[in-house]
Amino acid sequence: MDRVTSVRAIATRYAARRGPLLPILHAVQSEHGSITRPDVVAIADVLNISIADVHGVVSFYSDFRSTPPPAHTIEVCRAEACQSVGGQALHDEIVARFADSSDVQVREVFCLGNCALGPSGTIDGRLCGRLSTDRIAALTEGWSA
Ligand code: FES
Prior knowledge:
By secondary structure, the chain is α+β, with helices and mostly antiparallel strands. The chain is 46% helix and 12% strand. The protein is built from seven helices and four strands; from the N terminus they run H-H-H-H-E-H-H-E-E-E-H. A hairpin with a 2-residue loop joins strand 3 and strand 4 (126-128). The N and C termini lie far apart (37 Å). FE2/S2 (inorganic) cluster binds next to helix 5.
């Protein structure tokens, strides 16, 4: 099955639900890794809504991506509790460390519910507390920087 057919099938599966757009977008991204312009067009067609409406939702939520995901993702919490123990500086250092890497995406997040163990973050989806540049270097050993 080609991608457009797959996306149309996903959209059709959720179309009769109340508020189907977000579940469709999550399902498409889960299945294909991103939500491309042709995906947006297909979803809009199936739901009989405008392309702009679908694009607006895709572009509003930072979790939706229009390009394939990088090999690795680091999230660093920048909310208050983590910020009070160095989360901001840690985020900036990690962004600089991986600035030239196309394999690693560094994202800011705002509270992971792990405030007591800040600075907190995730490494490829795994929640980590008491993060430091040294600890992140150890946890990402072998990644291209
Ligand atoms: S403020 Fe960072 S985990 Fe809650």
